[in-house]
Amino acid sequence: MQGVWDGEAESRLIADEIETQRRAGRKYSDIAILVRASFQMRAFEERFVLLAIPYTVVGGPRFFERAEIRDAHAYLRLIQSEDDDLAFERIVNTPKRGIGDTSVQKILAIARQHNLSALTAVRGLINTDELQARTRTALSNFVRDLDRWRAMAGTVTHGELTETILEESGYTDMQRADRASGQTRLDNLKELTQSMQAFDSLQAYLEHVSLVMDLDRGAGEDAVQIMTLHAAKGWSSRWSFCPAGRKGCSRPSAASTRRARRVWRRNGASPTWASPGPARTRASASPPTVWSMAAGPASCPAASWTNCPSTMCRPRATPAITAPGRV
Fold first, then answer.
1. pTM of the predicted model, to two decimals?
2. Which helix (H) or strand (E) holds 109?
3. Residue 23: is it exposed, middle or buried by C-beta count within 10 angstroms (0-12/13-18/19+)?
4. For residue 264, how far is the Cα from the chain centroid?
5. Percent of the chain, pLDDT > 70?
6. 59 touches 230 (CB < 8 A)
């Protein structure tokens, strides 16, 4: 096991190790990364794209292709530029505002006819009788919200701006109401807002996303596999990385631990590298649980499955970290 400061450092360390294994002759397809939650994939995907390491996400879309991430980006793009009609069309009625598809298509047609952006066309239409009164009221409120958020952009960080938009637009409440997958989407959005803090401006962040999407052209058969433990059912790989212990992640359930055992029995208990996650989390009063799917005590450099070595942590004092048991 190795200790790292945060998710970005974790992704760099694992990417470096993958490149080392590649130079040693191992195929990318022999390597897998198993995470407990989908939001943990973001840092790895960005790192792999920048290093041209081919990868595929098993059991779901890539992070920036997820609907909730595209929706959040659409709000930000429309605030950044009123001329972004694709962003307008995506979020004008997301969440539901009572603006039907027929009204949206009429707005887009009028905008094209007069060589205007959709949002500029809306500013004029809300003062006419060409749309129903209820639709005009909803559009007027939408435009007012956009103007307020655009004014905020110069006074708060882009991460705070995104959180405000998601909350005030009702998008967060929409996800909370979805008991099936809403929490997963909220976790992904939280990861998004936290990752934005690394950029000096909203424009810089959006340019970064555009670059990542342009470079991410998919992978062939020889690609690193990224998946959640839930998606690992029936999976087989010879070399795996298991990022763990990230802030906001709960202790693995008994079911997920049993699943991990089955996976590794099926794969012959291949060598595994595991990270205990961000050091700032481990320095809290209640340190997170570190767990690995490696073959028993051999996964611990101190040959002790009870306490991790102090060298894993930063020089400052940190509480001992314990594992829930052998896997």
1. 0.71
2. helix 101-113
3. exposed
4. 26
5. 69
6. yes
